[in-house]
# Entry
Amino acid sequence: MIRFFTNKYEISNKKITLTTQDASHIRSLRLRPDEYFIVCDCEGTDYICRLADSVEVESKTKEKFAVAEIMRMQPSIGEPDFKCSVFIAYAKGDRLDYAVQKSVELGAYEIIIFPSQRCVSTPGDKGEKKIARLQKIALETAKQCDRGLVPEVVAVESFKQAVGLAIRSGVAIFPYECEDKLSLKQALEQNIRKQSSAENPEEADVIGYRSKVNSISIMTGPEGGFTSQEADYAKSEGMLTVTLGPRILRCETAPVAVLAAIMYHTGNLS
# Structure
């Protein structure tokens, strides 16, 4: 079913006023009044709607807004049961586009872009435009994969600032190619505590687990990887430096691989 996003203040008297862009999209789709679509309030509720009798309302600025009539409402089913913040270092070309798109598909709560010592590409004067484009990618992806919110894409000015935000999570994961002791699997098993619904812990594998962690962060590096100084700093601040195995993952692959592993481990990817 076609999905749109709105803010709560656009919902009133069982009707929702959609943006000019969404109104244009509706016109291009040639939706009929008897066809249904979903409008999500970005807070976990889906509204099943159809076009109101008055399809468009024209404002004083000549903008046209579509009006959706709410038929019923239901909880959004596309959100994980915890918040995962994904920190991605600046990368060249369309690598950031890919990483952002796939992170949104897998359930990232927010995406933070940051500079690192070995970054090949930096935003420069076009930083705001780059983030705006990535936010648009996040919006379109959220529509396509039935998310209950649109993950916010933001940029921070420094690596240390990114670490400071990451360590606020219950568990902060820092994949590092020179780590040879703690694996991602071990980090998840040791730090993302789980509680079985079974009275007998030995039955946990049979009955299943439920994650007790409310928030997790992932920080992955640029094309050249993190420097030893950056890894040492992240570890000193409380992040868990982990290895992802014997293969070196590309900078756009690493955040997606780690996020997928976490979603599977916590029961949010079956």
Observations:
- The chain has two domains: 3-75, 83-265.
- Residues 195-199, 203-209 have pLDDT under 50 and may be disordered.
- The first strand starts at residue 3 and ends at 5.
